[in-house]
Specification:
Layout lengths: L2 H25 L2 E6 L6 H15 L5 E6 L6 H10 L6 E6 H9 L10 E16 L7 H10 L5 E4 L5 H12 L8 E4 L3 H9 L5 E5 H9 L3 E6 L23 E8 L5 H15 L2 H10 L2 E6 L2 H19 L5
Parallel strand pairs: 1-2, 1-3, 5-6, 5-7
Antiparallel strand pairs: 3-9, 4-7, 4-8, 4-9, 4-10
Helix pairs in contact: 2-10, 4-11
Length: 322
Amino acid sequence: MTSTKRGFLFSALTAAMLAGSAVAASAQMELKILAPAAPGGGWDGTARSMQQAMTAAGIAKNVQVTNVPGAGGAIGLAQFVNTAKGDGNQIMVNGFVMVGSLITNKSPVNLSMVTPIARLTAEALVVVVPAASPIQDAKQLADAMKADIAKVTFAGGSAGGVDHILAALIAGTLGLDGSKVNYVPFAGGGEALAALLSGRVTAGISGWGEFEGQIKAGKLRAIAVTSSAKLPGNPTPTLKEQGINLELINWRSVVGAPGISADQKKALSEAIDKMVKSKEWQDVLKQRGWDDAYLPEPAFGEFLKTEQVRVEGVLKAVGLVK
């Protein structure tokens, strides 16, 4: 065998061994995911879907999910900032909702304190009413709001979050004062669903996935989606189709702990990259009705900065913050 061939084989074997070591290292990763909300909502669903996909795809050996609800994610964020510093095996799910709630609640902790990793998904919101409600569509909901905005109660996630913003934007689009919307925030999707099913609120707002089971069971009626066009295979009309010139998309992401090293950030980023490209994650997206909105670093960090400015502007425009 010539020295050239021996050199080629040595290089090939070395590359294969390094690749095998990288896969093994990834598979040995033990990850903790913090969902800063109660079970049943979008952040909890995202965290548990990540847990399912990463273990099934062999990306991590063990993935644990912890729920820390309250204050639109501010309590979970504060715990994450204070206890996970420098830990490259901890991540937290967040998104549009947290951006708005931190601003609205004037939180002492903010997203500049964590390490951006990636945006994961995007999802249109759906407006629902109890099946027994006399409201049949978004036009009738709009009429009820115009008649007496205080009598129309909306159930959704945290104050200042995307659900609350949508309710205020609907009011503003109708020429009403968005700050006068009667909005009832809940720490988790399960609580909001219970309020709807008991008839304690007029309408509910959330991602399609959170209400899909009850819609299909005939317990809730979907009256509008917030996308620019109907969702694939879904007959629910958009707000725009019903004369309310408005669209809004929710997004969810994942961040790392404060103070992690460049190598730790790289390892987390590579693990998330493998997850979003896996068949297991693609199956989750289809099952949940989520759009793939994957945006890795450094683009995600820049997006997060501009989104905080944009959301604050929206909150001021609808009167939710001064």
